[in-house]
Amino acid sequence: MLERRAVRHKLVGKLAVETEVGAYLGDVRIRLLEAIDRCGSISQAARAVPLSYKAAWDAVDAMNNMAEQPLVERAIGGRHGGGTTLTAYGRRMIAMYRAVEQEYQQGLNRLADRLGEAGAGDVRHFQGMLRSVSVRTSARNRLVGPITALSESQHGVEVRIRIDDRHEISSLITQESAEGLNLHIGTEVHAFFKAASVILRTDAAPPRLKRNVLWGSVARVHRAPAHAEVNVALEGGRSVTAILARDGLGKLALKVGKRCCAAVSPSSVVLFRFD
Which domain holds residue 56? Predict the structure, then answer.
């Protein structure tokens, strides 16, 4: 009977940079950023990764909204939304990721050498443990920033958050929630709201939504059989996504490059704080 030889497994690390609310940078997103830098086009970069055009833009929006500064800049216009370029900050993030990834892989190589004596089964078990620590989130709109104002009223506590140099967003929460979160001016919080809660207008927003009116321009439109997903690019690099019925898309005559506002009720904005 032939003796079966033990196979030496090489541990290959895929570095994932996570925040408290989900993935920020990973292998696919870094390769997407590098492809954008090479191609200057989101559609060409998506094909190079490969990703769908929508998935590529979703990844860019998530990174821009979670970062201190935008990683990608877009020029509105043309069939696929105009040109797309990396910012200097985006290039620094790639360089940081690749440097840490190299150290990470070297550490795994040293670990594999030490595990080699334990046998291939132990190595495969360790690989499974590494894959199990990934974190995912389904939040569609998520913005982060410091609290700029806290005000009490008969309806609750209004919390104002600065999301960039041009925009603020308000959340209306109960007094108990405000105390539980231990909120203060300057505290960094994460604001979440559903795409279905966003109202798109091309004229002035309703008076009841005067607090949360974010002006920008349509960056892209994804049409589904019963609805449409519209991404609005804000000045400053952030973005907001809304879902509306297909007939609503037609009534507003929304198309790429058209100026519009995304409005959301403060009561629809949920706050999270991570210490």
Answer: 9-137
